[in-house]
Each structure stands twice: as C-alpha cells, then as structure tokens.
Amino acid sequence: MTVSFSTRKSLVDDLKSLGLSEGDGVFVHASMRSVGTIVGGPRTIIEALFSVVGDTGLIAMPGFSTDAYFPPEIDRSQCSPAEIVEIEASVPGYDTQTSPTTGMGAIAEAFRTWPGTVRSPHPAVSVCLNGTDAKAFASKHSLAWATGVETPFGWLRDRPNMNMLLVGVGWNRCTALHTAETIAEPRRTKVRRVKTSSQPSEWADIPDVADDLDRLFPRVGRAFEEAGGVTLGKLGQAETRTCNYGSLISFAADWIGRANLESGDRS
User: Fold this and answer.
1) Where are the domains of the chain?
2) What b-and-e string marks burial along 170-179, b requiring 16 or more CB atoms within 10 Å of the CB?
3) pLDDT tens-digit readout, 1-47
4) Other Cβ atoms closer than 10 A to 152
5) What pTM does this model have?
6) What is the β-pairing status of strands 25-30 and 58-62?
7) DSSP labels, 1-55
8) Fewest CB within a 10 Å sphere: which of 33, 87, 171, 234?
9) For residues 36 and 237, is the Cβ–Cβ distance under 8 A?
10) 3, 31 Cβ separation under 8 angstroms
11) Which whole number is the average pLDDT over 230-255?
C-alpha cells in the first residue's frame, strides 16, 4: 500500500515548478484539505513558502474577520430597536492582534499569528503580510472600497514579481478579482455596515463592490487562463494556479467592465 503525503521539501519543489522563486511576492488563497496529508500541517506549507521566496520575498494572505459585523446568527429584522442597540454595543469590533480570520482556512489562520506577520487595519477585510516591506503595504487600508486602489490589494499591483497563488480553490475565492471590479467601469456596489472601533456606537455604512456570488469571477478566471496568463500545477494533491498579480487585475478590470456594460449593471 502506498501512502500519499507531502513534506516541506516536496512542497518547495512543487512551488518552484509553479514558477515561484527567490524574491517573489505571493498572495495566497489556499485550502488545507485540498493539499492532502502534510507532514507538519499548515506550518509546513508556510515554511515552504518562505523557503522559496527567501529573505527578500513577501507573502500575503487574507485576514478577513467577522468581529466587526452584526452577528450573522441573529436575525436583525426580528430584533427590537433596543435589542439592536444592545447587540451592536456588544459586538467586540476588530483587533489586529486578537480577531481571528473567518472562513479563510487553517493556513491563513496559522499565518496570521506567524512571527513577523503584520495585519492591515480594515475592520472586516484585512490583509496579513510577512516579508520585505510588509509593514509599508499593511500600514494603510481605506475603509471604503475595501479591496480598492488605496488598500494593500491595490498597492501590491506595483510590487515587482508579485504573484497570485490559488491552492485547491477556484477563481470565486480570488480577492484580487474584487480589486479588479473596484477599478472596473461600471461596477456593481453594495453597502457594508461595520463597527469601526471598540466603542459601542462607532458604526459606519461604507460603500464597497458587491458580492460576486459566482456570477463573473469563474468566467473571468477561465478567460485569463485561455489568454495564457496562468500556470497550472499541483501543490501536494491540490490543483493550483499561479499568475502575475498585477496582470490578473488589469485583465479582469477590463473584462468585468465590459461584462457589466453588456448586462446593463451599473454602479
């Protein structure tokens, strides 16, 4: 019987085969389950990433949290005004050190607490970064348009050799496509209500791009693949895609803008 497993060495080899090398930047969305059995778990994946990009590289992962949201398990429409005030006052709010990631997976959560990792200040859509210039990229994060140009997502476009790495997840999980839609004209929008500090009454309704809900992102991802912009491979057992971060956003912004025009969607 053959046992299938991955080690730090095998993951390093996989990452190099995908085209990553010393000095690169890489924004990672990853499913631990898809990678399969790993000797050392999430720690091994993170160490493999650092081994490949080296001391001059940069690793980024989503740090999204729900600590600044009205609790999703409570139906706001069934609450009295007094109950809403009490609940909103009790919402803890976002803390860069203690707010856990939500729905980002075991690898992103392990990376959040990794020595040297810094986190951007957005109360809901933060970014965790570790490596060269991590503090500079994380230091400012616009409250409105949380994935837009005045955020780490936007500034990383200009980082040389910046890559997107999708490990066992589809294009619907690629946050850079939200950045692309923020830039696109026209764009679909929504209002995001978040607690902006730990103070009871500090809430704000802020504009943002709408949730995609698999409407456009899988299609634009396939189009980018068909245009030759994506390298396909494996990380462990996971189907993995890597591409240039800035090129993806530029391609997708144009593609999404045209798709929204054709469908009649407007901001």
Assistant:
1) 8-263
2) bbebbbbbbb
3) 566 999 999 999 999 999 999 999 999 999 999 999 999 999 999 99
4) 27
5) 0.94
6) parallel
7) -PPP-B-HHHHHHHHHHTT--TT-EEEEEE-HHHH--BTTTHHHHHHHHHHHH-T
8) 33
9) yes
10) no
11) 98
Name which of 250, 248, 253 is nearest 228 in CA terms.
248
Amino acid at 250: S
Type of residue numbered 36: G
Q: What is the 3-state secondary structure (H, E, C) of 45-84?
A: HHHHHHHHHCCCCEEEEECCCCCCCCCCCCCHHHCCHHHH
- DSSP characters for 160-229? TTEEEEEES--GGG-THHHHHHHHSSS--EEEEEEE-SSSTT-EEEEEEEPP-TTSSHHHHHHHHHHTT-
Find all residues with CB under 8 Å of 190, minimum gap 6, and list them: 207, 208, 209, 210, 211
Tokens of 90: 């009790």
Token pair for 6: 């991955």
Residue 32 tokens, joined: 């631990």
